[in-house]
Protein: SRPBCC domain-containing protein
Organism: Paenibacillus phytorum
Amino acid sequence: MSNKMISKVDGQELILERVFNAPRELVFKAFSEAEHLKHWWGPRGWTLTVCNVDFRPGGIWHYCMKCIDQNQGDFYGYESWGKAVYDEIVEAEKIIYVDYFSDAEGNETEGMPSSHITMTFVEFEGKTKLVSRSKYASPEALKTVMEMGMEQGITETWDRLEEHLQSIQ
């Protein structure tokens, strides 16, 4: 199995899988600590200008991605705020959270779809298989984020994660 992402839509759920050439504990840590997230979260040409992580059930991750790539035209300089509220955390195995579009104060953006995400970290032949299941309120809500380029954005984000993992091992 290559390290490329496998993507599947099932009704109102987006299922993504990818194998990372890194130990499960390290991949989990990359999702749970601001110092790691700052290095890889977001598509290419974007950087995290804000990254506040309270990694515990009931805790919140509030962040801002900013486009710093002039070649991205109208997106250059654009800020995209997000907020995750953690439901359940099983060390090195699973993170369950609700992901929202938000503003700089952490208020959820009305009219934008949220998703209930379960991320599972699986030992796989000395590597880590990451399985992300994002459930949306409706197939239409999922269609909305897919049309915004969600799949390409996650592909680039996970490419950056792989690069980050390789740089710290």
Notes: The chain is about 25% helix and 40% strand.
